[in-house]
Amino acid sequence: MSTPDLNLLVTLNALLAEGSVARAARRLRLSPSAMSRALARLRETTGDPLLVRAGRGLVPTPRALELRERVGQLVEEAEAALRPSETLNLKQLARTFTLRVREGFVENFGAELITRIAEQAPGVRLYFTQKLDKDSTPLRDGTIDLETGVVGDDTSPELRTQALFHDRFIGVVRRGHPLSEGPMTPERYAAGQHILVSRRGLRKGQIDETLERLGRERQIVTIVGSFSAALALARASDLIVSVPERYTGNLRAGMHSFTLPVPTSDVTISLLWHPRLDADPAHRWLRSCIRDVCGERRSDLSARFEAG
User: Fold this and answer.
1) CB atoms near residue 67 (< 10 Å)
2) Helix/strand/coil percent split, the chain, to 5
3) In Å, what is the CA distance from 114 to each residue of 228, 277, 288?
4) Residue 307 confidence (pLDDT)
5) Does this model's pTM top 0.70?
6) Euclidean distance between CA atoms 117 and 123, whole angstroms
7) Residues 127, 114: contact at Cβ < 8 Å?
8) Number of helices (H) and strands (E), helices first, in the chain?
9) Which range (126-140, 178-192, 290-304) has the least confidence?
10) 2: in domain
């Protein structure tokens, strides 16, 4: 069975509305001969003459009268579907967005983001879910609306990405720890007992490789899979942990943070989404809210770190 030419619906709608080949042609900016050919195709497709001559004009057949309302509605719906999106009314927007984020995002950015969303669009709800891997299937199938993370070689090339902020690793100890006073050197840092954060259970990290090049080695006494667990251990002991500054801002409250005495590579935290949502007005608005909140939080945390 051949696929019908849906363009004929627009032609039929004009013919039924005008009741004249010439007027329908002018309405669709076609020549009368082109409209006559289109009417012939419609008659062949529907198996009905649709419009028949009565005196000097044309009158619709019963089949045409039956189709008139349905065809007009179909054309209106199609035109509405293809029309550019109307201005987004945030006060009337009712939608739940699912965000897949790494540990620390909700703790540091969630409150500001929720407050901003509630002020602008009280009908919008955010659902945060933990990001355990880089599988892009949830974004592709629409289970997830947005996610945060580090863009790498294993990131799906079809995804849209935008940098949110750059982060650096810093050292953290409890208040009153011996390392909270005096100048920080590679020797003092390496001499302490350390917590290594590794989701994959690695025994060494970038810091250890840098220390080895300096002829130093730190003692790692435990390995944990999350920054929150590592900071909880450091808060209750003399252990030292190295964590990303931005992503652990609120988690480090009440602790002493210091610049690492060895160089480490910064990381860029990005926002990721599927291209099918790229032009969606509500999705674009949410992305702008996240960018603004992360930007404001960056300035606030930088000031607090420098003051501490």
Assistant:
1) 21
2) 45, 20, 30
3) 21, 21, 13
4) 39
5) no
6) 9
7) no
8) 11, 12
9) 290-304
10) no
* Residue scoring higher pLDDT (5 or 127): 127
Confidence check: pLDDT of 301 > 50: no
Same domain, 97 and 223: no
Q: How many domains does the chain have?
A: 3
308 SS3 class? coil
CATH number at residue 288: 3.40.190.10
Give the range of the structural domain holding residue 282, as residue numbers without chain letter.
93-167+268-307
Indicate whether 74 and 128 sit together in one domain: no
Claim to verify: residue 139 and residue 282 sit in the same structural domain? yes
Does 306 have pLDDT greater than 50? no
Retrieve residue 56's tokens: 């000097």
For 242-253, write each residue's pLDDT tens digit: 999 988 888 999
Sole residue written with tokens 């003399």: 238
What are the phi and psi torsion angles at 167 (to 5°)? -130, 150
Residue 48 has pLDDT above 70, yes or no: yes
For residue 123, being part of any structural domain is answered with yes
| Alpha-carbon separation of residue 99 from 25, 223, 267, 285 (angstroms) | 51, 28, 20, 14
Backbone angles phi, psi at 126, to 5 degrees: -105, 135
Contacts (Cβ under 8 Å, ≥6 apart) of 252? 172, 231, 243
Sole residue written with tokens 């969630």: 110
> Rounded to 5 degrees, what are φ and ψ at 278?
-60, -45
Q: Which residues, other chains included, contact 127 with Cβ-Cβ below 8 Å and sequence gap of 6+?
A: 96, 97, 98, 99
